[in-house]
TrEMBL record:
Any one GO molecular-function label of the UniProt entry: transmembrane transporter activity
Protein location: Membrane
TM spans (from-to): 45-63, 75-93, 105-128, 140-161, 167-188, 222-240, 255-274, 286-306, 312-338, 350-370, 376-394
Taxonomic lineage: Bacteria, Pseudomonadati, Pseudomonadota, Betaproteobacteria, Burkholderiales
Membrane topology: Multi-pass membrane protein
Keyword Transport attached: yes
Entry protein name: MFS transporter
The encoding gene: ampG4
Amino acid sequence: MKTWKAWGAQLLFGWMNLVLAVPSIYLMLGMPLVMRQHGWSGTEIGLFQLAALPAIFKLLLAMPVQRVRLGGGHFVHWLWLMAVLLLALYVGIGRENLIDQRAMLFALTFAISIVATWMDIPLNALAVQYLPREEQLRAGSIRSAALFLGAIVGAGVMVLVQARWGWQAPFALMGLGLVIGCLPFAFLRSKAGLQAAETEHAQPGFVADWVSFFGQEGAKQWTSLLLTSFPFIGAVWFYLKPLMLDQGMPLEEVAWTVGIAGGITGAVFSLLGGRLASFLGAARAIPIYLLAALLSLILLTVSVWAQLGPFWLVTSAMLIAASMGAVSALLFGLTMFFTRRQRNASDYGLQSTIFTLARMAVPIAAGIVLDRFGQVVMLSVLTLGVLFAFVLAWRVRHSVGASTEVLLRSQ
């Protein structure tokens, strides 16, 4: 693949990952500020987060994408179908201000969550199908950077847009971004159609499909990393804003530090982490990145325990953002490595479900520990979780690294 063509494809997939991240982040993380201003209770805001549940069912949503053929450009047509549905939902939710219509707002948000989750499957199946194996670590780093930028846009910029130009403006911008991203996929239809035709022959049942995924060399070890490498450091990031507020930092300073500077740092180190991993190889990169996450979390824990003050809190927050960006870039890239070209959608859906379940479960458990035992104990428990992930990564690094080398040679 020519360099300019590869970069064009990478930017296209990165843009679409950004476009799909923004609505969920805006509705889940940005909208609660508006809700609170309009008298929503804490319980109502908390229950509203259940609209994110479709993310854990990506495994099931992948089934029809893998098996129901929509013409020659199979995955592109699935992408466009989901895009049309998402645009229709933007029109529905943006037609009038629904902030006081709780049930309707939840229903439309839930529907947007389903369609955006569903659309993510053909999008990343196309990335696996179209990009050479040697480009997939870079694709993972670009996707990770897009998610960090999506957090800034969705939880920050879109809230400001809504405050300045009204309820409809964010959804109009999100719809425009979606249309701009979908049009270039017309040029990928021929390749998508060819790959689909090559794998059209009889496919095994769903359970056999999933079992065969774990039959890949190194897949069981990779799954253990997928379950442990991100959730603990991700949970720290989830609680970092309230933790820094409790340490006495002003709200505006916390917003700039974690929301803006942290997001930019995570995006930059996502790109750097993917680049560095291509030189180090997966066997070296996995434990190095997790060791960096472990050291940054130890620094945060000590800073909170010893009351070291804002400088060390901010420093540890930036280090956590950097290590989290590098870890997530590597995980997204390796997810593509372990997605078989004949099972693009189903393998990606299975891995995404495994990742999402762990990512959602750990913050819930951490919240319980925080309420019962306080910040230092919670941070200590999460530090032990990252330590466990590091030890596990050290033990399985050669198996996972050898598997990625095999996949690269088979390209």
